[in-house]
Design brief:
heterodimer; A: 166 residues; mainly alpha; Four Helix Bundle (Hemerythrin (Met), subunit A); 2 domains; 6 helices; 73% helix; B: 401 residues
Chain lengths: 166, 401
């Protein structure tokens, strides 16, 4: 086992374990903190893949902004501080069965896909290539612009909803 | 003579090369050498942060005392320079309290996260050519992203303390930090766009003219939002005795409080280091060796923080948020678009570097003056209209009588 593999296994265990604890935690605030830990693990996986920009964006956006927003939202929910109920209700066996069935559906795809054992090396100027491809009409200019328009619409919608009624 | 000067000038890279040669001489593999050198770098950078914290607590008290015509600490040692040591011993020997009902893990982890997130951006601060923790190609993004991690620590401290004031203080701190991150990121984006790289080393090398004289508006906004993110006067609303007492760290004592306090000071150090790198040309400068220039420029930023603290009163929380959302953020969005157009336009015409810098400087200054004059004019007009309406109302009542 190489060092990279060991690091990968550690990060994967961190991501999955924290993800599991997010669901199983009895306390909403702890659940959010486990979610943040899980996102840190994902950022680590990005670094392992030499996608530093994605790792940085992951930390800045998901941990620095979105999870903070989630914490604010969670703290506004009623009665989160006292006696949080059990995280599982009586539908959990049914959910387990459905998830198991879905996994059986996915299993042939997972085993049938030829996972490339050796990835091609990441170019040194990956960030520049990423930036150029986002504004290149032959590559991702249209999806990029569509995402921008969607965010703009969401912004205007948020302002409209929050505006004082005259 | 030339050799000695060269040695002093490139002290840090020479030390690094010597260390690597020494380790290879011991028969270590390349990976082991890399690991050992990285660990030493981590140790040095963390020590730089901690030593900076100790020095800054003393220097701040001394400088602010001078501004206020006092002596400041002068009992411990000559000129009171042993004051940080005395403070450290005092904090170490204080009782380590934990409030009843506190969330044990959350409460104890929060100071660690705050301190670690404050120290982490030091990795990408270049102290000279070849003297940097790690030259990441996402350097600036890394610094901003890791710095944002401290928000989680602040919320954890506020929540875990089981104290209303701590929780309210944490909300206020996060609201302030997260809002001022937006203009700060925009001004960094302007610099990244003009420099054409996100690596801190690349940005320093791109500055033939320090960006302070090319992008003065971005520099000013970065400084303002930097002061706000550090939570120093005039934006020191994170600690308001009459409203939220000491804010999110009200329940911390002893070394845990020291860790949070250290986080604040190291954050100030990091912000002024980033200001030096982004706008003052980093290690570049005549005569002095690069690491000294870096330290001098960092010290300039820090001194500015202390100066502001000694001069300005704090502003109200709604004014602070209005300044951010209604002034700095739109201004920086316009500045980003404008700088992109002027930069590419001047480059397309093919002017020399001097004219390019002068053009961008003039554009930025025009924008700054316009941005200050327009709200002033609109505000005065609104006030005058209100006054006139009031006067009319008074006249009408007098006439009716």
């Amino acid at each position: 086992m190489t060092l990279i593999q060991a690091v990968f296994i550690l990060l994967a265990a961190l991501t999955l374990g924290a993800g599991l604890m997010t669901v199983l935690s009895r306390h909403l605030f702890h659940a959010v903190l486990y979610l943040i830990l899980s996102l840190v693990g994902v950022a680590g996986l990005f670094i392992l893949l030499e996608a530093e920009f994605l790792a940085g964006a992951q930390v800045l956006i998901y941990i620095g902004a979105i999870s903070i927003l989630i914490i604010f939202a969670v703290m506004l929910t009623r009665g989160m501080a006292r006696n949080p109920g059990p995280p599982l209700n009586n539908q959990s066996p049914a959910a387990l069965v459905i998830a198991g069935l879905f996994f059986i559906l996915l299993a042939p795809v997972l085993t049938g896909f030829p996972w490339p054992a050796a990835a091609p090396g990441v170019p040194a100027d990956a960030i520049e290539a990423l930036g150029r491809s986002l504004v290149d009409p032959n590559q991702f200019a249209l999806p990029f612009e569509l995402a921008s328009v969607m965010i703009l619409a969401a912004l205007i919608g948020a302002i409209f909803i929050a505006r004082e009624k005259r | 003579m030339g050799q000695i000067y060269d040695f002093i000038y490139n002290l840090l890279p020479y030390l690094g090369m010597w260390l690597q040669g020494f380790l290879r001489g011991l028969g270590l593999s390349e990976e082991a050498v890399f690991l050992v050198v990285s660990l030493i770098k981590v140790f040095l950078l963390a020590s730089f942060g901690l030593a900076g914290f100790a020095v800054l607590t003393y220097v701040e008290r001394k400088i602010v005392a001078r501004f206020q015509d006092r002596l400041g600490p002068n009992m411990a040692g000559p000129y009171g320079i042993l004051q940080p040591v005395a403070d450290g011993i005092k904090l170490l020997t204080k009782e380590d309290l934990m409030p009843t009902g506190a969330d044990r893990w959350v409460y104890n982890l929060a100071p660690l996260i705050i301190a670690a997130c404050a120290l982490a951006p030091l990795v990408v601060i270049p102290f000279g050519p070849g003297a940097i923790g790690a030259d990441l190609n996402i350097g600036v993004l890394y610094a901003m992203a890791v710095g944002a991690g401290a928000l989680v620590g602040v919320l954890m401290a506020g929540w875990g303390s089981n104290n209303k004031y701590a929780l309210l203080g944490a909300f206020r701190a996060v609201a302030q930090l997260i809002s001022y991150e937006i203009p700060a990121v925009f001004s960094v984006v302007v610099v990244v766009m003009v420099a054409g790289t996100m690596s801190t080393v690349g940005i320093v090398q791109a500055q033939d003219v320090p960006y302070l004289f090319v992008l003065p508006l971005a520099a000013l906004v970065f400084l303002i939002s930097g002061v706000a993110e550090v939570g120093r006067t005039p934006f020191d609303l994170l600690e308001a005795e009459s409203e939220i007492v000491a804010g999110f760290h009200i329940e911390y004592s002893g070394m845990k409080f020291a860790l949070i306090f250290m986080g604040e000071f190291v954050h100030a150090l990091v912000v002024s280091a980033l200001f030096a790198v982004l706008f003052l040309g980093g290690w570049q400068g005549p005569w002095l060796p690069p690491y000294l220039w870096t330290l001098v420029k960092i010290a300039l930023g820090i001194f500015l923080f202390f100066w502001l603290r000694a001069t300005l009163p704090r502003i109200r929380i709604d004014h602070m948020l209005n300044l951010n959302w209604k002034f700095l953020t739109p201004l920086m969005i316009l500045n980003l678009i404008g700088v992109a157009l002027v930069d590419k336009g001047l480059r397309a015409v093919g002017v020399t570097d001097g004219i390019w810098a002068a053009g961008l400087f003039l554009f930025n200054m025009a924008m700054l003056i316009g941005a200050l004059a327009l709200p002033g004019y609109l505000g005065r007009r609104a006030r005058m209209a209100a006054l006139a309406a009031e006067a009319e109302g008074v006249e009408a009542t007098v006439a009716a009588r």
